[in-house]
């Protein structure tokens, strides 16, 4: 008889289980357990974006996420491995027949770019991103992140929503649902897609999931006007204002008759925001007021690299949005595959050197200028900047190819700005950069830390959906207190 069918074993397990339940109940009654009571924001349907207090004092008021789609290689950017250089061309010990996402692995392969010490800290950073490297003393590196998937779409979902499946709220949606915004004329949450298009998981990266639709990200771009914002042709500004005034009076009259109609209140609020955006959005997206020196610093005037110039304009837009109090901004570098694998993003399977030689300059100067500019303007005092990608890449080249396969076992993110230590390095991968081995951390930990810096308790910020108390960090995650001031 198996243990599960043994009467003695069943009674033993049942007794200890019931005892554990009773003990947990007694500890909870005596307040000896951590408080897990949900904290839900009190949202006025007529003012869904009104600023709301955090759960505890916040270090950051705003968040800027820079997301490199396609899985940017940590081994060619920020994770220096001397042993990988030393063992170049040799098999990786214990992994000679390792099969990963696309197949069997070849030999250990050092980065095509040299690493050099940067700043006063001497942090070793690749020549692929030299201008970002100059900011090493302002950065807090997380070198021991681990993921749950080695597939791009689910990987992007996981980094943006804490779940690999579609249909869950993005981190920006959670933040704006909890906190609202201090700017009444712009969306609380903005996503800026790459000039080449949206990432593979598309709007899931900034979607509301099961949270109210009002808290989804609004897609902006410095390269094209926001859709459906202009007054229709043939309608004068006077007529437009009069029509909006008439509609508002009618809506308010109806709302007084049905004061409990929260759907109508929310709809009125969205129309009012849209009306205000007709004035505020053209102003914030109009880069003509930027000086020539700023355009040059970002690379927005680069006629030789049009893609870099376009991305640079998006970087300037990101700064302007943060400057105007937008709570959460996601800036994407890289889009879903257009023109073949790795051509429009960091998915360097077949020809990493050729492809990264194009992607590196597009990212480096504009992002470095964005960070310098924000620091110069004092924006980093209240803004947390997070650089991330969906997972890392292998220290080997793929067998028969000149690129690296997917690797969620150990990869890098970095933070800068409000509330984080800098220069600082947390965690490490093994001697080849394959697996996280020191202070191993998860994406849940990263999300918990971001919410904590915004003044939010990741364990108590929950939304009841389909019988579950859902949260960004699922049932996992710990705040990385070691990286915080």
UniProtKB/TrEMBL annotation:
InterPro entries the record matches: Alkaline_phosphatase_core_sf, DUF1501, TAT_signal
Stored PROSITE patterns: TAT
Top-level lineage group: Bacteria
Protein name (Swiss-Prot/TrEMBL): Sulfatase
Organism encoding this protein: Rhodopirellula bahusiensis
Lineage: Bacteria, Pseudomonadati, Planctomycetota, Planctomycetia, Pirellulales
């Amino acid at each position: 008889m198996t243990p599960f069918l043994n009467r003695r074993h069943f009674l033993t397990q049942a007794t200890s289980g019931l005892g554990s339940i009773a003990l947990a109940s007694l500890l909870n009654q005596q307040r000896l357990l951590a408080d897990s009571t949900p904290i839900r924001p009190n949202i006025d349907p007529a003012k869904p974006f009104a600023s709301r207090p955090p759960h505890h004092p916040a270090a950051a008021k705003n968040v800027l996420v820079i997301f490199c789609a396609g899985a940017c290689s940590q081994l060619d950017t920020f994770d220096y491995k001397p042993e990988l250089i030393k063992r170049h061309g040799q098999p990786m010990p214990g992994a000679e027949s390792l099969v990963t996402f696309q197949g069997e692995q070849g030999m250990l392969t050092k980065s095509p770019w040299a690493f050099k010490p940067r700043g006063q800290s001497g942090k070793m950073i690749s020549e692929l991103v030299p201008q970002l490297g100059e900011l090493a003393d302002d950065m807090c590196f997380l070198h021991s992140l681990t993921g749950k998937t080695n597939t791009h779409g689910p990987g992007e979902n996981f980094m943006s929503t804490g779940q690999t499946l579609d249909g869950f709220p993005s981190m920006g949606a959670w933040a704006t649902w909890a906190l609202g915004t201090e700017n009444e004329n712009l969306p609380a949450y903005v996503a800026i897609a790459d000039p080449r298009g949206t990432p593979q998981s598309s709007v899931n990266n900034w979607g509301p999931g099961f949270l109210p639709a009002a808290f989804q990200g609004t897609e902006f771009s410095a390269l094209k006007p926001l859709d459906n914002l202009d007054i229709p042709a043939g309608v004068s500004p006077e007529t437009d204002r009069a029509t909006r005034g008439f509609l508002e009076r009618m809506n308010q009259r109806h709302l007084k008759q049905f004061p409990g109609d929260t759907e109508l209140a929310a709809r009125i609020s969205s129309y009012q925001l849209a009306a205000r955006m007709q004035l505020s959005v053209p102003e914030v997206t109009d880069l003509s007021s930027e000086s020539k020196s700023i355009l040059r610093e970002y690379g927005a005037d680069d006629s030789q690299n049009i893609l870099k110039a376009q991305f640079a304009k998006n970087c300037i837009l990101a700064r302007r949005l943060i400057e105007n109090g937008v709570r959460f901004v996601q800036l994407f570098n890289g889009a879903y595959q257009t023109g073949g694998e790795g051509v429009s993003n960091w998915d360097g399977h077949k020809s990493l050197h050729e492809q990264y030689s194009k992607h590196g300059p597009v990212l480096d100067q504009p992002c470095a200028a964005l960070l310098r500019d924000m620091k110069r303007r004092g924006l980093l005092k209240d803004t947390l900047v997070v650089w991330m990608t969906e997972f890392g890449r292998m220290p080997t080249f793929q067998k028969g190819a000149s690129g690296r396969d997917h690797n969620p076992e150990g990869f890098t993110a970095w933070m800068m700005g409000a509330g984080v230590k800098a220069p600082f390095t947390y965690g490490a991968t093994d001697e080849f950069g394959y697996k996280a081995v020191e202070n191993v951390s998860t994406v849940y930990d990263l999300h918990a830390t971001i919410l904590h810096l915004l003044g939010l308790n990741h364990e108590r910020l929950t939304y009841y959906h389909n019988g579950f108390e859902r949260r960004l960090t699922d049932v996992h995650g710990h705040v990385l207190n070691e990286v915080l001031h």
